[in-house]
């Protein structure tokens, strides 16, 4: 796990640059699941997701002279916007390598934060191109395979523990494993008895396959609509954290993630990404593991979902 000291240091480093996001009870979800359910509204974070926590923590440790040469990252989702935003706040340039299939709303938002966007045929090739930019002097910020990034994401876990002392269960999504790795490290180091449950969608289940194989597995393609969960592979680091901290990883179909998205929009008045709504879909499947006295937190990790995409899905 990432140590509590590393996560506390990250919180001090990024203080004043990110939001402490709300954690609210949900009566409708509590009735639905027969337990006490709370929503960690990380989709209200700056840039619409948790990603700025890790991006800021990493960027602020880079010497200023080196940082001034520019930040480069690979992302077809929320990490792109986070790095672009962080770079703009620190007054440096940024370049984001994106798969060609990246939704237009992510591309537009990333450019609006001031980043240059360069497209690659797919995420695997985008990662392969990073080394070339590093040789030119750019500093890369990996979306999940970096202890500083993971520690930054873990600050959300500290907030959960502090804002809900009786918490018994935390349900969070998995892309490359950095976010849940940080949250789980914060939670398990603070309260080892709290259970952390991972969630993936079918067609983006790189962690599930890695856990089954005992090693990282490269997915041939990302077919899930939850594009922000679309890491082609987890890493040895994030796999090991998952092995040491997670109760299990629940894989849900896109249809259940969409149904959960609709319910959250209609009943909680919150528009999430499918990559966040899938936590509710997983909690439905896990409901027998919760008791009436449990205190279950669903982490809604992001809300960067285009209206056009929403309309297509709901039709």
Q: Topology, please?
A:
Layout: H1 4-14, E1 23-25, H2 27-33, E2 36-40, H3 51-59, H4 64-67, E3 71-74, H5 78-90, E4 94-99, H6 104-112, E5 116-120, H7 123-135, E6 139-140, H8 147-163, E7 169-173, H9 178-190, E8 195-201, H10 206-213, H11 236-245, E9 246-252, H12 254-268, H13 274-286, E10 295-299, H14 307-314
Parallel strand pairs: 2-10, 3-4, 3-6, 4-5, 7-8, 7-10, 8-9
Antiparallel strand pairs: 1-2
Helix pairs in contact: 1-3, 1-8, 3-5, 3-8, 5-6, 8-9, 9-11, 12-13
How would you describe what is shown here?
- With 315 residues, the chain is an alpha/beta fold.
- The chain has 2 domains: 4-50 and 146-314, Rossmann fold; 52-140, Rossmann fold (3-Layer(aba) Sandwich).
- Helix content is 48%, strand content 16%.
- The chain contains 14 helices and 10 strands.
- It has helices at 4-14, 27-33, 51-59, 64-67, 78-90, 104-112, 123-135, 147-163, 178-190, 206-213, 236-245, 254-268, 274-286, 307-314; strands spanning 23-25, 36-40, 71-74, 94-99, 116-120, 139-140, 169-173, 195-201, 246-252, 295-299.
- The strands form 2 sheets. Strands 1-2-10-7-8-9 form a 6-stranded mixed beta sheet, with helices on both faces. The protein has a 4-stranded parallel beta sheet with strand order 5-4-3-6, with helices on both faces.
- Helix 9 (178-190) links the parallel strand 7 (169-173) and strand 8 (195-201).
- Helix 5 (78-90) runs parallel beside helix 6 (104-112).
- The N and C termini lie far apart (42 Å).
- 53% of the residues are buried.
């Amino acid at each position: 796990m990432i140590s509590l000291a590393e996560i506390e240091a990250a919180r001090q480093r990024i203080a004043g640059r990110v939001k402490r996001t709300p954690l609210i009870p949900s009566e409708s979800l509590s009735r639905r699941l027969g337990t006490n359910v709370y929503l960690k509204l990380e989709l209200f974070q700056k840039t619409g997701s948790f990603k700025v926590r890790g991006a800021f923590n990493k960027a602020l440790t880079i010497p200023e002279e080196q940082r001034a040469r520019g930040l480069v990252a690979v992302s077809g989702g929320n990490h792109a916007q986070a790095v672009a935003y962080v770079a703009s706040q620190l007054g440096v340039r940024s370049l984001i390598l994106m798969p060609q299939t990246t939704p237009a709303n992510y591309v537009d938002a990333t450019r609006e934060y001031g980043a240059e966007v360069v497209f690659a045929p797919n995420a695997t090739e985008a990662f392969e191109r990073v080394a070339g930019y590093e040789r030119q002097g750019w500093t890369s910020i990996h979306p999940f395979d970096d202890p500083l990034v993971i520690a930054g994401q873990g600050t959300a876990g500290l907030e959960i523990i502090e804002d809900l002392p009786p918490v018994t269960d935390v349900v969070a999504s998995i892309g490359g494993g950095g976010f849940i790795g940080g949250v789980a490290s914060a939670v398990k180091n603070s309260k080892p008895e709290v259970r952390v449950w991972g969630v993936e969608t079918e067609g983006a289940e790189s962690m599930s396959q890695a856990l089954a194989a005992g090693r990282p597995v490269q997915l041939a393609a990302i077919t899930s609509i939850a594009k922000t969960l679309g890491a082609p592979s987890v890493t040895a680091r994030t796999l090991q954290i998952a092995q040491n901290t997670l109760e299990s990883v629940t894989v849900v179909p896109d249809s259940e993630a969409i149904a959960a998205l609709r319910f959250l929009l209609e009943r909680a008045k919150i528009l999430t990404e499918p990559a966040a709504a899938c936590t509710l879909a997983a909690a439905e499947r896990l409901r027998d593991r919760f008791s009436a006295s449990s205190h279950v937190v669903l982490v809604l990790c992001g809300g960067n979902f285009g209206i056009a995409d929403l309309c297509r899905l709901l039709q």
